Fold this sequence. Notes:
Elements: E1 4-5, E2 9-10, H1 13-26, E3 30-34, H2 38-51, E4 55-59, H3 61-68, H4 78-98, E5 101-106, H5 114-131, E6 142-143, E7 146-147, H6 160-170, H7 199-212, E8 221-223, H8 231-239, E9 242-247, H9 249-265, E10 274-276, E11 279-283, H10 285-288, H11 290-311, E12 318-319
Amino acid sequence: MSKMKLKPGVLTGSAVKEVFAYMKEVQCALPAVNVIGSHSTTAAFQAAKEANAPVIVQYSNSGAQFNAGKAMPNDKLQACVAGAVAGAHYVRSLSKAYGVAVILHTDHASEKLVPWVEGMLTHGEEYFAANKEPLFGVTGGEEDGVDNSDVDNAKLYTQPSEVLAAYDALKSVGAFTVAASFGNTHGVYKPGNVQLRPDILKASQDAIQKERNTGPKPVDFVFHGGSGSSEEEIRQAVSYGVVKMNIDTDTQWAFTQPIKQYMDSKDAYLKGQLGNPEGPDSPNKKHIDPRVWLYAGEKGMTARLVQAFKDLNSFGQFEF
């Protein structure tokens, strides 16, 4: 089939549904990148440009807070709200300049974070009233203070009956994605410690198709917690209807590693503004400039995301 053609900028509404339907047909998915500010966001844009595919830019509550500034008061989660809203506007402004298509998401949230979601919805309603499109596409191990590392292993596997119950509850509301658990966890673990079972996704799709007389693969699944997964496991999950894979731990490492390498290699130049192996009065400005090592981090993160596009079979599947 011919490649799907998209316009640069933020995709919303029916455009997102069409992208997800196309991806299930060609068996590919998109990385959902947790961003914390401009540097990680532009790294995601550059990866999407190189992959010639849309990217899902995603804010967690703590990522949104960091985007606003950790020093900003947050007693009512106002920093989380402000950071997410500012990030959404930043993405809308710059994605078109990069020539890439973006789907805006939030990461998951626990009950205590409801004020964060409500705050974004308020801003979203105001934005919709003025622009006739939503500001976000919102979806609701250890991550952001939610620690489930001690949960019974059996609970890491969602049953098809539970996915059917979610489908029935949400179908009348509108478009939705389901982050079913099939052994996936946050973070990177030693091989063999986590047993992924993507077949659970297939069983759920088959059960819903049979029980509700739908077409094939009626659910848009999310691979929530994909760091450290093998290409074979990722491709199998995608073949069963995964359209989105959250990636955070791997991109954090990809951003930090080249910065660490830079700091190590330039250590003698980073001890002061003056003085290095070239002489006691030699300036170090070009070495201490944060733009040098932050850009190294951006490039490392971009490279890791390009690999994610390839693992998810979405590299080169679109046209702009």
